[in-house]
Every structure is written in C-alpha cells, then in structure tokens.
Please model this.
Amino acid sequence: MEGRGDSALRGHAFISYVREDGKRVDRLEDFLKANGVPVWRDVHDLWPGEDWRAKIKEAIAADNLAFIVCFSKHSETRERSFQRDELLIAIEQFRLLPPDRPYILPVRLDECDIPPLDIGAGRTLNYLQHVDLFGRRWKDSAERLLEAVRHVLGPVPPARRRRPPFRALIPAGLACLALIALAAVGVLRLLGGAPPSSTSSESPGGTHRPSTGGTPTGPPSPQPGLRVTDNSGDLSAVVPQAWGDVVGNGWHPQDPPYNGSYIGPGFNATPNLTHWFNDLVTPGIFVGVSKLLITEHYNPVTTLGAFAPLCDFSSRAPIAADGLTGYRDVWTCQGSTTRYETMALWPKDHSFIAFIELKIVTPVDEADGNRVLATLSIRY
Model:
C-alpha cells in the first residue's frame, strides 16, 4: 500500500511526540506522506522566532485535522514536554466536537501506558482505541492508522471545483505527461547559472531527451523553441515558439486568502493568453514559486489542493527531480480530451514551493511540455 494515496485529502495530520522518539516518528511521517497524507510537524512547520504555542494551536484547531499523539516509555518519564502542552490544546479542541467525531488518534511506540486524561463526556484518553507501532506488525498497524487518518480527513469532494487561483488556468483537468518524463533524472533541470535572455531562440538539438529507442511512429519531437523568463529573472524555460504569448509579472492567486496579491515570481507561456484562460483547446504552462506559501504553512500536498483546477481529479503520484520532491496530480475534463497536470515540489530545506501547471491538448503539446520541464531553471 505504500506509494501514494488514492485521492487528495482535506486538511492534514498533526504528529505530537517527545524528542527522544524523533527517529521512530520519522518513519511514521515518511509512511503517511508516501500515502498522500499531508503532515504538520514542529521540525518542518515552525520557524525561529515564531510563537510556537500559537502556531501549534492554530494547526490543531484547523478544520479536518487528525491529531496523532505518540506515547512511549520516553514520554512516560518526561515530567515536562512540549507534547503535554500540545495534547492539552488538542483535548480542549476535542471537547468542542460532537462525541462521535474522531479527532485524536493515540499511538504507542512501545509497551507503555496511555495517560487517563479527561477528554470530556465522561471519557478519558485511554478510552480511545489506540494503534501499536512497534514489533513485527508495524506495517499492518500503520495501515490501520492510515485508514483512520483518511477517515478523519476525508477526500476532497469531486464537486469541489475552485476557480484557478492564478492567471494560468480556467476550466480544466490535468494533462498527463508520461510518468517516465517526470520520474527520469534531469526532467526538472534546476540550473545554477544565470538564465539566458528571454529573446534567445533554441532548437530541439540543444535539449535532447534521452533516447528511448523509438521508431518514426513514436512521440513527436518538440518544436523549435525560445527561452523565456519571468520579470525577476528567477524563472526561465524553453517553450515552443508557438507559446510566445508570455506574461511574466509574477504569481497572483485570485482565490482567498490572496485575492490577487503577489506571492512570488511566475510566468505563463501559451499561444494565446486570452484563450488559455477560457477554453479547453489552447495549450500552455504556468510556473510559480513562493516563499509566502511556506510562511502560511503550505506544503506540496496542501498547495495542490488549494490551487486545484476546475475539472475532475484523476490520480496522484510522488515525483522527485534535482533535489526537489513533491507530488504530481492529473485532472481530466468531462467531454474533452484535454488534460491538465499540476506539480508542487520543494527543496530539502523547505525554503520555497514551486508550482507548475501544464495544459496538454495534443501529442505535440505533450512533447513540448516535456521539453519545458526538462529546461526549467529556478534560481530562488
């Protein structure tokens, strides 16, 4: 079952633990993320100088949150810990919910007792069903916990079709670039040097993809292209000459909480910007990068959920390229062969999130889109 979730989830899982159990919690976090569960954890989601109590309370109190609290012999012997404060905040929120609504998910990391803390309605914490994540049945127990988390969070409803939050997408579902194109080494080439001029032209000869032994009946070659940049020069890519209608004035999501405010560098490239916004037959790409999303506690999974296109969710898969990791979502539109593909990735230090959306109409567009990804440069 490890690998990915079947659908996007609302909200996120919060993991509460003591520091001594960090390595065991790393394994749990990796398992949840590999199965499509967004995870909120202090080591990733708190920054120096922040009021950690306020931030943790904000995260715990958020809608559609599964609070995973990990107990162990280490937590039993700790007289003081941040975990205790987190747990008290979680119980405070738990008491506000209907008695039949799950929220707190106790986990034991070894043979230990779960404290009998009052959680309201005549119940104590050890009244709740717990999961044992130790011993030979670790994976089976982790699968049970995963199902409980999915039940708490629930999938993003198929009918939840948001207006595109930036100036690149209108009605749509996601383009399915070949999985090989995203999994291969070098698909997203994050160059370290200064980007070339936005007016320089390049032929396919300068950006050959690895040969797959194809015949003349295989996928079409990408068109001759030119390298374009955003206004800041932080982003650049080789796009087909036909995609020369470019706007590079940044990323301005239209949905709350941003409502058109600037959140980072970005550009669109397409044959016709007006048609790109409003039809299902004009291909193109949007690339945006933001540090503000990190400040607002977004991660690649929640970014994909917040900036979803208007059509039907199809699939999700993890992707990795040149030090960035994240996920790729595919969306399809009823009554159209056009597909959209969204990708959200971040570097190991989680200093920014890169968001990419491709609109693919024909096999030629797919070849062009693959080349755009292969030549994308982010200097941010």
The two ends are 35 Å apart (CA to CA). Residues 179-378 form a domain with the Protein Transport Mog1p; Chain A fold (CATH 3.40.1000.10). Confidence is low (pLDDT under 50) at residues 1-6, 157-217.
